[in-house]
Fold these 4 entries.
Entry 1:
Amino acid sequence: MRLFAWEMGSVAVLALVACSHGHGSEPVAASPEPAATTINQAMLNVFQPAFQDYGDTAFWAYDEDGNLDAEQLTDDQWALMQAGAEALRESAQEFAGYNAFIVAEAGAELGFEGQGFVPPEEVQAYVDANPEGFATMMAYFAAEAEIAANAAAERDVETLVAQSDVLYNACKACHMSFWYPGQR
């Protein structure tokens, strides 16, 4: 079931990005200047640790029989997940406000999930080919992170865990669209 949810989430996000290709509509992003933070910096310093705070902690919401139980989580864990989701939302919202992006600083090596490195110029070309799609994906991610933050604030364990999957799928879809298209 989890694999099916991943596949459906990825299809929805990829369709969202595909629909943003070259239709002559107004750009999603407002600023013609590149975002001040590189995508790589945001991934390493915000997205990765904040998602771990949210997604990894959400797994503690299951009891020993595999049932969801909000009582399994401590006040500190709820606060950590809320802060993680809020950091994800804020960073994604910032990127959604641009239509030009810098993938990485000169000389950076971009990791490919333990399988070596992807040349930054290659990723930059993918992002440059569809900056509106990247901004749209970031807007989508920000909206989903808002739902995640609200779930943590309200201690809604079912939505909390569901949003962990949604955010993971959004990350994966963005990676497949911009970081290493055509690869798994």
Entry 2:
Amino acid sequence: LSYDEAFVQHLGVDARSDTDTLAAALESHTIEIPDTLDRRGLLDLALGTAIVPALPQNRLIYIYDFPADQASLARVKDSDPPVAARFEVFINGIELANGFAELTDAREQRARFEAERAEQARLGRTAPPTDEALLAALAHGLPECAGVAVGVDRLVAIAAGLDRIGAAISFAHERG
């Protein structure tokens, strides 16, 4: 299921919609929207509160082709519109895995880090420091590659039939 298809099927709007349209769609699903959310925050809120809970149960669901502005460390596909070569895997409302094709261009990654820092400053938030070690490694050369992160805590929660990941973590901040 593409990211855009997920939004249309479960929220009734295109993921590329403007902030007001996204907010109205969330409000129509009686989802409370914090005042501090920007467009990317609205997309994350929509995915987590309106889309993932509505996904079919008891089977793996792959959501792929995230918006280019959510690429983070992922390569952006040369498509129309451009999308991140990124996916997430869900089962029973739990994100099981997150994967992507790695961005291997140090200049592009630096530009993304700088854009993220500027956006965080604009929003009055503290941005994490630029990962100079990663940028140096990319500049040294990284072949085309991809990776997937799978949370062991998530696997345990799913295997045990838990509906919250926190219940599978020994020292969770919030027990549940």
Entry 3:
Amino acid sequence: MNRTLTFEVTSEYDGERVVKFLREAAGLSYRLVRSLKQIHGSMLADGVPVRSIDRLKTGMTLTIHMPLDGGASVEPVKADFDVIYEDDDILVLNKPAGLAMHPTHNHQGDTLANAVAYYLTERGRACVFRAAGRLDKNTSGLVVCSLNKHAAAKLSGSFEKEYIAVAQGAFDGNGTIDAPIIRPDPMKTLRAVGENGEPAVTHWKSLGTKNGYSLLHITLETGRTHQIRVHFASLGAPLAGDEMYGGKTDRIHRHALHCAELHLMHPVTGEKMHFSAPLPEDMQSLADWIMKKE
């Protein structure tokens, strides 16, 4: 089974080689173009097979037959998640808290990768799990997966997320946390703010505060591991429920962080797309408590 992409050659590429058009106009990665060169008939100009070194003419229709993955990269295991959007190139879903992204020595079958593999296999679309970005195990919210190599290359770094969080601290107005993040012990996942770390910038806006808890809207300039959790913990205001970084679990039993909004440009059509996911019950309950007027 192939994913077919079709492009019209513009005057800008008149007389140029196929490879230049594919890399520049079509946005195909070097690796994908190299793999297409090995498959006869994967590149057609007006229905006729061409090589990457052949030259194009204005008005030609260039068709690319992109082979899909042969099968799932992990064991398909059924698990619940909500599908927000799906087409031939991307899958946008709402990940529940408690579901790790990828298999590890501690989580072999109970991960989002396994769940997506099951979902796609059931629909005859088995493919390698390629999530653009990642969420911590106990972070809920939006995740976008690419369903082919071209989509994966185009999506990399070309999307924006907005988060809702609850921090244990009184925050008013808005602000920015600009503090590098280090990994003190390479054998542990724990991160910390420290000199000579990786640059990390977090923007926040307070939506409300009550009894030492604040409901926050958060956006990121960088995407470091545990960035939001580490940044607020460094201020003495860890996320509610985040035991790893000193949060209390009296009001929520996992760190209060949810990816609520996702903005991206479709990797094939170029369409600007926006997705949202409502707060799960545990965070909604906490948010309602903070925002409720006494």
Entry 4:
Amino acid sequence: MTAIIYSCSEKQKIEKTAIAADAFKIVTPIDQVVTKNGIKIKFQSYNNDDFELLEFVVSGTYGTTVLKPQLHQDQLAIHIPEVISQHSGIIEWKLIAGETTLERGSFKLLPNIKQLKTVENYVGPRSIIANERDYTMLVSIPVDSLDNMLPDQTVVQMSKQFKGDITTTTKKIQSGFAWQRIPAPLTTGRLITGSTLQQISSKELVVDIFPDIAVPFKITKSSNHNYADGNEIIILQTDQIKDSHGNIMTDGTLVTFFIKDDHDNSWQTTASTVNGYAFAKALHPQAPSTWTVKGVINGMVESPELNITFKSIIDEIPFSFSENKIVTIGPLTSYLGQLVPDGIPVQLKIDGSEIILKTHNGISTYTFDTKIIEPNTYDIQIKTLGITTTKSIELK
């Protein structure tokens, strides 16, 4: 067991420091506007000998602080510093001496609605789709000169402007902010938003309105002719691609043209839209064929199929055999009688072997080496520009 013994002098000191509950009385603080100058709380009554034993405990938005009374020119007062007085909220306080609470209470620090600083505006998403489903939201947070949010029911004017049409809506602050849901317009453009409170205005914030999903479109072709010459350029073109509300698709929308011919060959080409139109180029085939073309915007929509038929530029293959070993194919001429472009492939098949030649000035030639192929009579198959013919030659 532990015992604590006090001397007579210590006991007298403790008894002397005991303070009566009514020995000190402050002027009870009332609800007031925030200030950057601090708050002075005066004492109605006090004892000059014992005030140093007092502590004033303040609890607010940013924590708890213990303050000591100050005696100045026979006036005892407590000064609540500006770090506390400039933030709105509920202030709870109590006046204590040792473990004894002499007084306690609370008061409100209110935002200063007569001295406003700014209206902070936030809007999002910043880009939406022109349909009945999408929307953006405008949020306004006005603050006073000390950055305190304003009280509930404060009225804010929230405005939007789209294509010359201005709409202003009155909203009341709740929990420090006012908000408004803005449905997406059904046409593309820029939606401008802003808010005002008394004489204070927010910054301008802009929302971009983009087209909705494209509706099915058609494709057409443009070319100088429909001959399979391997040289002409064909242009594949969409009509103007729009959404269901008539909005032209955004520039840069990628359209893929899938092409398949009647020889089971498949390939594709792409183009980006400009003002809703997409143009892609392809080279005419070198052999007569029929293309099936379809335009697709990935994940959205596709066009009906377009069939394109290419005709052969020749009816037969000019052929000659000279000096018992030289084969000449050509001159190959196109639909106007002009020579075909250089580089047109010509395929020869003889005795199980295949030889690929290229045209130059419309002609391909090949000289057989009788050291490699025995002199004899052979059937030679010639294929070019989609035409196949068989000739008989005698190598000597």
